[in-house]
Amino acid sequence: MARRQARARGGGLWLPWLGLALLPLALPPAAAPPGACPSACYCVATPELVQCRYERLEEPPKELPVTVHNLSITGSNLSILHPAAFAARRPLPDLRLLRLRHDNIQAVEDMALQGLPALRTLDLSHNPLLWVAPGAFAGVPLLRTLQLNQALLAAPLEDQLAAALRNLSLQRLELAGNGLRALPATLLPAGLEELDLRNNSLQRLTAAELRSLEAPGLRGLRLTLGANPLGCDCALRPFLAWLRATAARVPDARSLRCAGPPPLRGTALLRLRPEGLACAADEGGEPGRLETASYVFFGIVLALIGIVFLMVLYLNRRGIKRWLHNLREACRDQMEGYHYRYEQDADPRRTSAIGTPGL
């Protein structure tokens, strides 16, 4: 009996400890503290820099440190940026740089950046953009740099982007690697200072495009044009003259090279003179056709002149033959006269008679 009572008392001592062990399982998980990193991301040095690399996120992280300054999400599958995508629960007043590369973003809806009032740099490079809402960049009045490198290959979005950038005060716009064949004049808001057009499909800048660069608000715009297939023919003359006059507006002007025609391939543009550029006949342009037509016409005229000359000779063959016969007879008479005088001067009797006095 005493042993049973001791065992009962011993078992009762373990019950409080067992309850404490099971208590965390009964309570809901605690929310992450405001300054902690999301579970799918990590902080670099401090919570002010958050990086989410190749985490296969389907949407932006919900819990982000309020003090974050730089946020980088790379290699995810965000697909669509919905309104307030990064500040759905609370604003991020200190976020200045948002980098979203290789995230398969296809659409940016209205007010997608709402809650990021201090955002200054947005990087949407390497995303297959298909649709950009007119108010996609509303709510970020301090946005100064927009990077869209290799982001406009899936669909032509110039009109949509022009509407979305209308109320922004951008200073730098990057459009490298988008296969552009002309200057995107509609995407150049007044006050833009730098435009990156490297690695596109630009062959030249036309006279109309150059005039758009002289519009008020764009006269200080600097262009970067490296790695474009520039064609060094007569159509390049307006751009080459503009480049030689305003080389300071193209920081990589000294590195620009001709992609064609073959005789000028690899030649530095600044070593060429506008008046020395010839028009290629195979370009299909109007100057080439005019030049080819002029050479053909000149050849036809020479051929007609030759034919007329031969016909004149043929029709006057008898007169020409008579004239040649008379010319030959005259030459023969002249030669016989010279021969007779030579024989008279060479006669010794005539010489002695002339040299003997008194005879």
TrEMBL record:
<keyword id="KW-1133">Transmembrane helix</keyword>
<dbReference type="InterPro" id="IPR052286">
    <property type="entry name" value="Wnt_signaling_inhibitor"/>
</dbReference>
<protein>
    <recommendedName>
        <fullName>LRRCT domain-containing protein</fullName>
    </recommendedName>
</protein>
<dbReference type="InterPro" id="IPR032675">
    <property type="entry name" value="LRR_dom_sf"/>
</dbReference>
<feature type="domain" description="LRRCT">
    <location>
        <begin position="228"/>
        <end position="280"/>
    </location>
</feature>
<dbReference type="InterPro" id="IPR001611">
    <property type="entry name" value="Leu-rich_rpt"/>
</dbReference>
<keyword id="KW-0812">Transmembrane</keyword>
<dbReference type="Pfam" id="PF13855">
    <property type="entry name" value="LRR_8"/>
</dbReference>
<keyword id="KW-0732">Signal</keyword>
<keyword id="KW-0677">Repeat</keyword>
<keyword id="KW-0433">Leucine-rich repeat</keyword>
<keyword id="KW-0472">Membrane</keyword>
<dbReference type="InterPro" id="IPR003591">
    <property type="entry name" value="Leu-rich_rpt_typical-subtyp"/>
</dbReference>
<dbReference type="InterPro" id="IPR000483">
    <property type="entry name" value="Cys-rich_flank_reg_C"/>
</dbReference>
<dbReference type="GO" id="GO:0090090">
    <property type="term" value="P:negative regulation of canonical Wnt signaling pathway"/>
</dbReference>
<feature type="transmembrane region" description="Helical">
    <location>
        <begin position="295"/>
        <end position="315"/>
    </location>
</feature>
<feature type="signal peptide">
    <location>
        <begin position="1"/>
        <end position="32"/>
    </location>
</feature>
<dbReference type="Pfam" id="PF00560">
    <property type="entry name" value="LRR_1"/>
</dbReference>
<dbReference type="GO" id="GO:0005886">
    <property type="term" value="C:plasma membrane"/>
</dbReference>
